UniProtKB/TrEMBL annotation:
GO annotation, cellular component aspect: bounding membrane of organelle; cytoplasmic vesicle membrane; endomembrane system; proton-transporting V-type ATPase complex
Family statement drawn from the similarity comment of this UniProt entry: Belongs to the vacuolar ATPase subunit S1 family.
Keyword Transmembrane: yes
The organism of origin for this protein: Panurus biarmicus
Protein known as: VAS1L protein
Lineage, uppermost ranks: Eukaryota, Metazoa, Chordata, Craniata, Vertebrata
Amino acid sequence: LSLKFGDIGNLQGLVIRLLLSTSYYQLSVQNWFSLHRLQLLYNHSVQATFNATGIHAPATYSFHCEHVSSLQRYDALLVPSSANDLSQLWEVTFIDFQIQGFNVQEGHFAYARDCASFFSPAILMGLVMSLILLLVLAYALHMLIHLKSLDRHYECKASPAYFAQMKDSDMGDEKEPLRNSGNESYELRNQQFGKIYI
């Protein structure tokens, strides 16, 4: 696939050549197309050659990517073919790149297979945070399951304090004066104790 810029100023002699191929994969039971190589030609001579990596899609689809570039900040899908090649002097970046090599109908792209990875940094961070929360929840459940009850059990845990009541008429019979060092004091003959439950 050759892209020619026609008579646009200094780009008149520039041609971008994309080398595509199709292959049949038994695992997916369909044909896939791949972009293998990109060449930059100027005035009919090859100026730079880049090997393409990861640019492939089913033959009935198109391939779309926000950036197809030779720069590392865009994941470098285009790699110079040789260290001694002039490709090292070139920086190529396609923005909003979409290509379909075969089965083009009515001049429109088919459904696009995007190059965006499923595991983007945001998704990976969300998965890590979810894993941490699950670990904290599992630890809390483990602590609740193994929580031990108190060893001492009381007969009645919620009953109020109870004190025995004495009548005023009986107080005179039950009091006995104690005489010690001139002070008058009384001692109860029938001592009744109240029980306190906690």
